[in-house]
């Protein structure tokens, strides 16, 4: 068993060190003809980043596979489903991710299953390991018995309170001494670095810097919209992300809407069209409503409903699925639930594996911004952030560390500045 782990704050170079360690390992023990490197992570944004980084590793020449733990678990359970049934396990459904990972972890404890993986993938990279649930962490623990694991994590960047304390940390410390990384490679701006460190350590932030500011914007929406429009107008180029820990209550949405409607404030900056990134569920609900399919329908009725929306890639995928079900299995009746589920899967696959076309000005939740970087970040911080001081610090820290050049935080009231995450 060989386990190498890197621990450090956002921007400390954990992924860089993973690639550096992989290069060193490949020089000492190169891949043979049938071998490849496997890179695993929980979120697709991290998977895309790993894919890009691995393309630059010397002597790898594309001989790698970057995938999510859920995708890998599905492959394991499908390949060994006869063994799973023989052992008395029921096969999980396609969207039962936790059950799939739990079963995969059980299967990977068996020598024959584990060898099936490590004979092809002797080196396994795991990035953003703080996001792994107990089931997914158990998969890594099983794989480590037969392969080389190179792993990176930062407990403070876990935003899912249900995962705390993170499952994999205890296992890591039992099997290796993590390499502690410090510093920040993402930005050289001292104000951004100091603000992130202060939030992480629970200290008061300096609210009145040049590149990092915290401003109370109570009252009319025009007030905070002016700050947003001015930050965009005076940014001196570069991408802009408007981030918020919560869209409830309209504090963030109203400001984004107002900035897009027309000039605002004394300087009359704007309008700027800021695009909200939607989730698979939101896109699916809107598209499903447009299709107008309710209850059961025939194949012809489903295809007719999709005809007006056939230019949308997800609808084309759904249409092809209906045609395939009819031609290969003779299915003529479909339930609305089945069609809605297939539409959701089509949207998910397209979002996860397609190329993201980043808008110049975009808005999203802090959770959606994980594993991404922007030149400028504007944080809209409303009243209704979860009443947990530690979680507030984690959220603000993850927002600040997305920025490379500047960060503005607009809070809903003055009294919030004297409470966490802005003050102890």
UniProtKB/TrEMBL annotation:
An annotated GO BP: recombinational repair
UvrD-like helicase C-terminal domain location: 362-409
Lineage: superkingdom: Bacteria
InterPro entries, per the entry: DNA_helicase_UvrD/REP, P-loop_NTPase, UvrD-like_helicase_C
Gene3D superfamilies attached to this UniProt entry: P-loop containing nucleotide triphosphate hydrolases
GO cellular component, one term: cytosol
One of the record's GO molecular function terms: 3'-5' DNA helicase activity
Lineage summary: Bacteria, Pseudomonadati, Pseudomonadota, Alphaproteobacteria, Rhodothalassiales
Species of origin: Rhodothalassium salexigens DSM 2132
Protein name: AAA domain-containing protein
